[in-house]
Amino acid sequence: MRYSIMFFLITVSAYTQDCNEKNWKDYFDRGNMNGCELPSINLSGINLSGVEMVGINLKGANLRWSNLSGSNLKWADLSMADLTGSTLVNTDFTQATLKKINLEGSNLRKAIFAGTILTDANLKFADLRSSNLYWVHLTNSEFFKADLQGVISGNIEGVPKSFPANWVIKYGTLINEEWGSSNPPDKVLLNE
Q1: ∠ CA 84-90-94, rounded to 5°
Q2: Cα distances (Å, whole numbers) of residue 166 to 19, 146, 171
Q3: pTM here?
Q4: 178 — alpha (psi -120 to 50), left (phi > 0) or beta?
Q5: Domain assignments of the chain as residue spans, ordered by start
Q6: 58-105 confidence digits (pLDDT tens)
């Protein structure tokens, strides 16, 4: 029992830092921004690729045109953050809170949204190819003209406000009705 408590305390302290708007660059330079408190900060156009940001608070932050590819944002709060046009390839948003986030036109290829809250999110024109949307909450989210080809999904909760043409949720899974799955059928090109 004593060892379990000690392990828990060490684990919690690993994600608790005194990282804020005044000193975040010190943590960024070390590649570890876990648990930073940065609500409403302006990080527009910054390259944050590959940075550990587990449990970070970026609520209402301006991250327009930023690069967060390969970053770990598990359990992060990015509610009402603006990531318009950002690059988020292979970014892990597992169990993050992304309520009212703006991801319009962002590159989210192979991003992981497992267990993420994406309610009232703007994903218009977003590239979500091969992303993991398993067990996400999508109530009132907008996917107008988003690229959903190859998404991995299941147990989706909520009803989005909009989808690209031919896309629906059936039995908790995203499906292109024309293809019968999230992947297009192989096309054989003859005489072309």
Answers
A1: 85
A2: 45, 12, 16
A3: 0.87
A4: alpha
A5: 1-192
A6: 999 999 999 999 999 999 999 999 999 999 999 999 999 999 999 999
